[in-house]
Amino acid sequence: MDTLTQEAERRLPTPVLTYFQQGAGAGLSAAEAEASWDAPRLLPHVLRDVSAVSTRTSVLGTEVDTPVLVAPTTLQRQAHEEGEVAMLRGAAAAGSLVCVSSNAGVPFRSLTDFGPWWVQAYVLRDRKLTVEMLDRARTAGARAVVLTADTPVVGEKYGTGPSVWETVPPEHLLTNIDWQGVAEARLEKAADLTPAAIDWLRTATGLPVVVKGVLRADDARECVAAGASAVWVSNHGGRQLDGALATARALPPIAEALAGTGAELYVDGGIRNGRHALIALALGATAVFVGRPALWALTIDGSAGVERLLTALTAELTHAMTLAGTPDIPSLTHDLVAD
After folding, report:
1. Residues 236, 276, 319, 334: which is the catalytic one?
2. Which residue(s) pair with 211 in the sheet?
3. Is 236 annotated in the active site?
4. Residue 180 predicted with pLDDT over 80
């Protein structure tokens, strides 16, 4: 993974690289994410039949060959000219799924011929613009709406040099929102969201709703009670509230809180290898998402790079599952992780 990152760093313009890498504030949460997955220790089974190990699973009814999925990220056309099209094509070739950002730089209609995808949603102050954007996504084949709930305002980033927003062409952003001529205030993120937004989105789109950005067990229960089909444990890659808890630590109590509800549970944030994925799945996640690694892979070799990344992470997961004595995803249980 270090080699992948270093190669991407050599290729990306400095403002774009800074934007992809930086966390909020002093970068505390961003810096500790990977190490938080390195810390847990495993208690593998022995004398289990692992002659055939399968990573196949399903997320919200969609069958996938791997539980390693792609998180929403913006400015993908700065990483590769095909942007989200290449990301989706590569993920589909690996048997994975992509959550596409509402800030996508390509029209949703260009994604219809590839693999399964969900649409991430920032609810704007202008709810009408949000619904119109989601209608486009649903028509183009999006299978779920992922409500990003941790961004009433954008976390403050510190840095020097030119801002990425001074260098990015306007056609690389908000391609699916009719923002031309719209007052800037109407495009700002809504700060008045409540759990009622979950049912509003579900009714408006007819799609299952995932709530992303949850770090508390009580919030997770409230989201499911309000109609969420899944909860996504995330601190936004350390890009929102600096000092927010690492997702590896937030995941177990949320999994315990949602046990028996039927809701699915996802996690992102610092997952960089198959062992990290195994730990997350054992701690209760239905699937894991990777963000920055997918951007590095896209930068280096477009769809082929994304396919190689996800295939390699899945191979690492398969290897770890074999050594842990766990032949399939359901056999990854909490007792594999030492307290």
Report:
1. 236
2. 147, 231
3. yes
4. no
